[in-house]
Amino acid sequence: MSKSEGIITLTPDKLCLGMYVVLPTGWLDHPFLLNQFLVKSDSQLKKLKNCDLNTINVDLNQSKLPANWGRETTDLPHPQDPKGPEDPKDSDELPDWNPETLIPDELLEALHDSKMEPKARSQAVYSHSRGLMTRLLESPTAENLKASKKVIGSITALILSDDQTASNMLRITSHDFYTYTHSVNVGVTSIMLAKALFGGSDAHDMHELGAGFFLHDIGKVNIRADVINKPGKLSDDEMRHMRTHPYKGYKMLEKSGQLSEESRIIILQHHERADGQGYPKQLQDREIHIYGKICCIADVFDALTAERSYKKAMTPFEALVLMKEKMADHFDKKMFAEFVNLMR
Amino acid sequence: MRYQCDICDYVYDPLVGCVEEGIAAGTLWEEIPEDWVCPECGAPMSLFSPE
């Protein structure tokens, strides 16, 4: 079979895992780093289906499809096989990510390619960091936490060393309601705020901190699905349960042995407020660690600018005004002033 | 009545007690010494809610 004979054209809904897709357009017309690649995850599939392409070419020679693939779509139906090929996305089971498969190749590529144009690089790092967080939230094992901590270290280093890429990342943040998007947004924003506050001081281990910021909501994997996915307002009891996520995340990272105590404090304290009205421990201002305070500001800002089923997204400006006028008591004043400065 | 920790979700069930902390099965919430803390996360009794 010659190469051109191996290429078929499908509508996006016919795509499945293991296909080697060849996208018909340039980089800017789709959210992927490469124009051709093997589809390895459900998030890639979902993105392909959402990127407004009417048809997508698939190179069968480079695809890794199960032997029975295509019998139903290209030949007459097989009476022996009434169910047809199993579509991985129909399965209820979560994929089992491991340190080998967890990190999207495109993320590593963008992190290592210092010659990449800053706008493209920030887009790639941002979108594939979300891919990483999606996988980690699906399989938050100790070894996966360890592998992600390493790559979050590289993301942190990039944000610290390359101002242009970092501010591009702030500008392109999405505002959907997914925990993985929120994790990356709060991670990036908190690192920027820490950088603004600490300057070049080496008193802070920024790599540990970066991991704490990205993983601040990891405890949500232990919150019941009916509470996490509830579209409306939570009942008192559901809210009580939801508010256990900081402690659960803190404990989870303690057990995994992957983060320093200082960095784990971020996870435990990111909902504490300077006026003592936060949770879980209702700490007073002076009892809250500066790292927890940084994450709290970034967390509230991202929650306000994100769209939810029960509310529209605010613009960054509206969110800052609301935080200043209605929530000033929640935050450390000096830190909030620095945050406003950063967002200008 | 069972009580649940607001910080970590630990449940105190009077039928079970909390033997490792010296609270025998059958001890009602009201009978637990005031300085008892959550065996899972150390939260004081004031941070428990009736389940």
Percent of residues in β-strands of chain A: under 5%
Structural class of chain A: mainly alpha
General form of chain A: globular
Order of the strands making up the biggest sheet of chain A: 1-4-2-3
Poorly predicted segments of chain B: none
Task: Please count the helical segments of chain A.
Answer: 15
By DSSP (H or I, 4+ residues per run), the number of helices of chain B equals: 0
Determine the N-to-C terminus distance of chain A.
57 Å
Q: Note the gap between the termini of chain B.
A: 7 Å
The radius of gyration over CA of chain B amounts to 10 Å
In angstroms, what is the radius of gyration of chain A?
Answer: 22 Å
The largest inter-chain interface, given as chain pair and residues per side, is: A-B, 10 and 10 residues
Task: Report mean pLDDT of chain A, rounded to a whole number.
Answer: 87
Major β-sheet annotation of chain B: 3 strands, antiparallel
Oligomeric state of the chains? heterodimer
The chain-level mean pLDDT of chain B equals 94
Residue share in β-strands of chain B: 15-25%
Low-confidence stretches of chain A: 72-91
Q: What series of H and E elements makes up the topology of chain A?
A: EEEHEHHHHHHHHHHHHHH
E-strand count of chain B: 3
Question: Rough shape of chain B?
Answer: globular
